[in-house]
Amino acid sequence: MNRLLDSLFPTADNIPDTWRLEAPLEQRDYLVNGQLKRWDGPLATVRSPVWLKQADGEQQVVLGSAPLLDADTALTALDAAVQAYDKGRGAWPTMRVAERIQHVESFLARMREQRQAVVKLLMWEIGKNLKDSEKEFDRTCDYIVDTINALKDLDRRSSRFELEQGTLGQIRRAPLGVALCMGPYNYPLNETFTTLIPALIMGNTVVFKPAKFGVLLIRPLLEAFRDSFPPGVINVIYGRGRETVSALMASGLVDVFAFIGTHKAASDLKKLHPRPHRLRAALGLDAKNPGIVLPQVDLDNAVEEAVTGALSFNGQRCTALKILFVHEDVVEVFLDKFQRKLAALKPGMPWEPGVALTPLPEPGKVDYLDGLVADATAKGARVINEGGGQSRGSFFYPALLYPVNHEMRVYHEEQFGPLVPVVPYRDLQTVIDYVLDSDYGQQLSLFGNDPATIGSLVDTFANQVGRININAQCQRGPDTYPFNGRKNSAEGTLSVHDALRVFSIRTLVATKFQEANKALISEIIRNRQSSFLTTDYIF
């Protein structure tokens, strides 16, 4: 392990030309009211999780800098969004659906041109490997296409009139107002755009603040945002959330709050809004997803899914398996197979072929994980995989902890990193109680092949979590499936279809079914005198 860590970080000459950095990027641009504005104030230094070997030792790479906007500047972006919405009378919220779709398609075409630039920054900024960085970019583009198609389908169904009890009506979806969209650092493109794009395409105006890590990768898209949407429809700000976002929420002018992060941060921000009953929220929050391995089980599959579920992108996923309950009858064999699978995972730099384990972007993360390991080992657990828990700079080699119990911090805390706690159990009720008593309720995974047991557990957990995975790891996709959670794990449901509904409201135009009214409605539609009241069919 020492040799591995000694050779982990490269010299500058070892980096392939395709992925080599140019000079550090000093970004001072932000987007407000259709203009790229220059910020002449203080900047935040952007550091990479990648370190480079230098003559005097290993040094962390400085990628560049990003604007530290103040509250007043952030409020100019909010003002632009408010003016563009104009209490629902602006050009964007009153635009025909087909025209809004054209704007989003224009943005998508421009976005695709920046694939390599964004993928490169994903690797350098958050340490995501090349394969997963490319997947995140492509999946985001696919999500935009799917969202467009879903809106077309929704609009087609809404284009007809309904007649009920002598009342003629048309029900269509209308925007909610000004949306504030914030995404997470682990999926700074994909998960951000799963709220940003639906918010825009449904006619809301948006203030968008990129994630705290993964901030520079939005820069290649700023011109595309500027050129693809009318002024004020999309505004991009930077800075510390405590200063900028707090001011936005306290203004009371935000109508929709889309946030992916911790439940504490979400609660603190929501409390700042002076009219919380008027605030719609779409929140993806913490999770402590358990994997439950039953005694009757295909262990090879359980181990394969558990390793991937616990350690994909170093376990830095809200959907990661963060604690494993394994029955005593199979735990020894499970651990042996798990260790062998783990040992086969290749550590290295994000651009290296086949790399699965990469450095961690969050400052202080290695120390936090060290603390969890120290707490667990002091209370009876062992790191049972060779080299587990060893670190170098921003890199932490995964630690398989066993046996874990309720006295340990890692039993309760969401580690959000390459730490795999395994809890042996004899009585299944102890596992059930863990799920019932947990503050979180996003997902869980069941591994077993006894129909009676699996069926009973599905019924037990269906009212506890948003998704139950059988013989499979926890995950978000496919994006057409609902993504939500209970308790402190989420508010609202996101999917390609659900997100369109989250960022809109059903609005009814109705009249008595009388000849004069029928003639009036017919003339409005025939002469296209309303963008909302229409029977257009979008192909």
UniProtKB/TrEMBL annotation:
<dbReference type="Pfam" id="PF00171">
    <property type="entry name" value="Aldedh"/>
</dbReference>
<dbReference type="InterPro" id="IPR050740">
    <property type="entry name" value="Aldehyde_DH_Superfamily"/>
</dbReference>
<dbReference type="InterPro" id="IPR016162">
    <property type="entry name" value="Ald_DH_N"/>
</dbReference>
<feature type="domain" description="Aldehyde dehydrogenase">
    <location>
        <begin position="60"/>
        <end position="503"/>
    </location>
</feature>
<comment type="similarity">
    <text>Belongs to the aldehyde dehydrogenase family.</text>
</comment>
<dbReference type="InterPro" id="IPR016160">
    <property type="entry name" value="Ald_DH_CS_CYS"/>
</dbReference>
<dbReference type="InterPro" id="IPR016163">
    <property type="entry name" value="Ald_DH_C"/>
</dbReference>
<keyword id="KW-0560">Oxidoreductase</keyword>
<dbReference type="InterPro" id="IPR015590">
    <property type="entry name" value="Aldehyde_DH_dom"/>
</dbReference>
<dbReference type="InterPro" id="IPR016161">
    <property type="entry name" value="Ald_DH/histidinol_DH"/>
</dbReference>
<protein>
    <submittedName>
        <fullName>NADP-dependent glyceraldehyde-3-phosphate dehydrogenase</fullName>
    </submittedName>
</protein>
